[in-house]
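SEQUENCE-TO-STRUCTURE ENTRY
===========================
What this section holds: a protein sequence and its matching fold, both as plain text.
Question of interest: how does this chain fold, as expressed in backbone structure tokens?
***
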Amino acid sequence: MRTRVANMLQLVDKEKPGVCKAAMCLWQSAGSVVLSRHAKAYRTFALVLFVTVGLTACNGNDTTSNANAPVISNPPHTSLPMPPLNGKSITNMGWSLADGKHSAFSDFNGKILVLDFYATWCEPCRRSIPHLIGLQRRYENDVRVIGLNVGGPDDAAEVPAFAQEFKIQYQLGIPDDDLASLLLANSDAIPQTFIFDREGKLMRNFVGFGESTGEEIDRTVERALLSKAD
């Protein structure tokens, strides 16, 4: 079923560039670990939306339509403060690595931590990767970029090839459910990039990746580098 829909969307993309990508992201995101429990119903909704609304609903150039789509192609917005912890501690939350090891937020005390939630099929996510690679290279002693895949179980299998394609050197993992639920509580749109200072304080949360996002991320990291851990 997914293959038939993908082929149909690719045909539409030829008619109107950008439409297929946004619609496909809406379809594929229904399997994401950070979406609601009613993923099956959401998949059905995605198909109905595509068929009934047509070409204009997923147009990446239309900032008013498709506002709730899980993938952001428009200029990003930022949000603070941190979502409420509800008694939980983020220091014990973390992510699993391909080798079976587990990393926790607390492992990076004293470092600037950049958590990037992405999926391999997400076009805005893909556009952000080269900048994140450069960021890690420039500040390799003080900054840790972590890529956290939220594209669903099928997408996790694509990560090794994705890493090889972009020559990603920073750590890639799958976020714990509680970490994804916490940080993506306000929006499950991707990409989302969270920047924490040396003390673990959230400095900025970027939703989407636009023309100026890279520069804004750099400025936030540079400010974070001025902070000192206790």
